[in-house]
Design brief:
iron transport; nucleotide-binding; six-stranded mixed sheet; ABC_transporter-like_ATP-bd; Rossmann fold; four-stranded antiparallel sheet; alpha/beta; membrane; 8 helices
Length: 247
């Protein structure tokens, strides 16, 4: 199993309510996972815990068999090999596209940086935009730069926070398809949070529906739509499953 998250709990200070309660799931290499839920459901909290921006109150998390958190371990964010694409892209306005992408490659030699930059620009189809600045790009192009910057260091995992919230509806449709193709070509495991079911169904291999900090449902997009191209087990909400077991 590439990523394992087991029984993770978390509460923000000065509140009795759990932001995340016994969250568990396993993720395979190269999977695209969507965390879907309303505001306050806990979906962004999962990203913060994986990134190391918050510390769980209990549970375990491992990436490629390396423990990043348990009762004795807390791996610092910079050592986790995780890339992030922020909601507002967080591009440096005074840097060109190329400079933004190269920002996280400080450990590479000059020739290696140049090669990696060319590879990533080709991946996101921005080969002719290396010398441009963020303000000279469209919203979709800025998002591609943010994705390229996150992919460039070859992270174990990429986290995306509401990746389409700053795009108009028409552009969202095209960018969804493009983003999935980019992530699959790069073969990078990805988790993105969204409140939009269309985003989740268009991009994800599996969708995790959160409600009040707990997993409500988890499955493939076709499962959640009730479409079964092949015979599959009946999809039952987790809460109902617990009730059946208790009986």
């Amino acid at each position: 199993m590439f990523i394992s998250i087991q029984n993770v709990c978390f509460s923000y200070p000065n509140t009795d309510r759990s932001a995340l309660d016994q969250f568990s799931m396993n993720i395979e290499k190269g999977e695209v996972i969507s965390i879907l839920g309303r505001s306050g459901s806990g979906k962004s909290t999962i990203l913060r815990l994986l990134a190391g921006l918050e510390k769980p109150t209990q549970g375990t998390m491992t990436i490629q068999n390396e423990v990043i958190f348990d009762g004795k371990t807390f791996l610092q964010p910079e050592k986790r090999g995780i890339g992030m694409v922020f909601q507002d892209y967080a591009l440096f306005p005074h840097m060109t596209v190329g400079e933004n992408i190269l920002f996280g490659l400080f450990q590479m030699k000059k020739a290696e940086k140049k090669k990696r930059l060319a590879e990533v620009l080709e991946l996101v189809e921005l080969q002719d935009y290396e010398k441009r600045y963020p303000h000279q790009l469209s919203g979709g192009q800025q998002q591609r730069v943010a994705i390229a910057r996150a992919i460039a260091p070859n992270p174990h995992l990429i986290l995306l926070d509401e990746p389409f919230s700053n795009l108009d509806a028409e552009l969202q449709v095209k960018i969804r398809k493009d983003l999935r193709e980019i992530l699959k070509k790069a073969n990078i495991t990805s988790i993105f949070v969204t409140h939009d079911e269309n985003d989740a169904h268009a991009l994800a291999d599996r969708i995790v529906k959160l409600k009040d900090g707990c997993i409500d449902m988890i499955g493939r997009p076709c499962d959640l739509l009730g479409i079964h191209p092949q015979p599959a087990p009946q999809f039952v909400p987790i809460q109902e499953t617990r009730e059946l077991v208790s009986v």
